[in-house]
From TrEMBL:
Keywords: Amino-acid transport, ATP-binding, Nucleotide-binding, Transport
Single GO term (MF): ATP hydrolysis activity
Domain ABC transporter: 2-231
Origin superkingdom: Bacteria
GO BP term (any one): L-amino acid transport
Organism: Sedimentitalea nanhaiensis
Lineage summary: Bacteria, Pseudomonadati, Pseudomonadota, Alphaproteobacteria, Rhodobacterales
Protein name: Amino acid/amide ABC transporter ATP-binding protein 2, HAAT family
SMART domains noted in UniProt: AAA (SM00382)
SUPFAM superfamilies with a match to the protein in the record: P-loop containing nucleoside triphosphate hydrolases
Family statement drawn from the similarity comment of this UniProt entry: Belongs to the ABC transporter superfamily.
Record has Cell division as a keyword: no
C-alpha cells in the first residue's frame, strides 16, 4: 500500500500541496481528478522525490520513502511514467528497457513478459526512441516502468494525444497491472478514461483533498463531476 500523509509541497515560495493525504491499496486503481493547477503532477513528483516535502510522509508498505533521494525511490518498487514520457531519445527501445531492468536487477523473463504486453516494441527493438510514433513512445515509457517489477505504478496523463487504439491498449495494461496486485495511481483528464478503469477517484483542488469516492458512485451520479470539475 502507498500512503501519503499530510503532504505539504512548494515551488519556491508558492505552496502547491496542503496537507494532502491519500492511500492506494495493492490491486487498486486510484485516479486523481482536479482542474489544471490543482496539484496532481506535483503529487506524482513528490512521491518520486523530485520535489522536497515541507512536511508530511510518504510510505510504501509502512516503510518511509520520503527521505530517499530520487534515484533510490524506483528501487523500492515505485514505477513512474511522467508527462512527456521521459525517454532517452537517442537510445534504442532495447536500451531504454535495459535501463528499467537495471533498477531492481530484473531478469530476462521480466523483459519477455513486458514485450508480451507490448508486442510492437519487439518489432521496434533496435530503433531509437526518437523515431517512434507518439503512441509507441508511450508504450515504451510504460514498458520501461514495468521492467522494474513495480509494486506501485504512477501514470501522469498516459493517454494524452493518443489515438483511440493506443488509449485502449494503455487502459488494458493498467487493468492487467491492477489485477496482478499493483497499486496504480493515475492522473487523467479524460473523464471517460477514468470511469472506465478506476476503482476509486480522489478529487483535489488547490492542493487539498476534497473527497474520495468509489468510481461506481461517479458513474451513477454525474452531478458530482459537475460540482468538482464543471464537466
Amino acid at each position: 500500500m502507498l500512503e501519503l500523509s499530510n503532504l505539504n509541497v512548494a515551488y519556491g515560495r508558492a505552496q502547491v500541496l496542503r496537507d494532502l493525504s491519500l492511500t492506494v491499496a495493492s490491486g487498486e486503481i486510484l485516479c486523481l481528478l482536479g482542474r489544471n493547477g490543482a496539484g496532481k503532477t506535483t503529487t506524482m513528483k513528490a512521491i518520486m522525490g523530485l520535489l522536497p516535502l515541507m512536511s508530511g510522509r510518504i510510505a510504501l508498505d509502512g516503510q518511509a520513502v520520503s527521505d530517499l533521494p530520487p534515484h533510490r525511490v524506483p528501487r523500492t518498487g515505485i514505477g513512474y511514467i511522467p508527462q512527456g514520457r521521459g525517454l532517452f531519445a537517442e537510445l534504442t527501445v532495447a536500451q531504454n528497457l535495459e535501463i528499467g531492468l537495471m533498477v531492481r536487477k530484473s531478469g530476462p523473463e521480466v523483459l519477455e513478459g513486458v514485450l508480451e504486453l507490448f508486442p510492437r516494441l519487439r518489432e521496434r527493438f533496435r530503433q531509437r526512441a526518437e523515431t517512434l510514433s507518439g503512441g509507441e513512445q508511450q508504450m515504451l515509457a510504460t514498458a520501461r516502468a514495468l521492467c522494474l517489477e513495480p509494486e506501485v505504478l504512477l501514470l501522469d496523463e498516459p493517454t494524452e494525444g493518443l489515438q483511440p487504439s493506443m488509449i485502449e491498449l494503455i487502459r488494458q495494461v493498467i487493468v492487467v497491472m491492477r489485477d496482478r496486485g499493483v497499486a496504480v495511481l493515475l492522473v487523467e483528464q479524460r473523464v471517460d478514461a477514468v470511469l472506465a478503469v478506476a476503482d476509486r477517484v480522489a478529487f483535489i483542488e488547490n492542493g487539498r483533498n476534497l473527497e474520495t469516492l468509489d468510481a461506481a458512485a461517479l458513474r451513477a451520479d454525474h452531478d458530482i463531476l459537475q460540482r468538482h470539475l464543471g464537466v
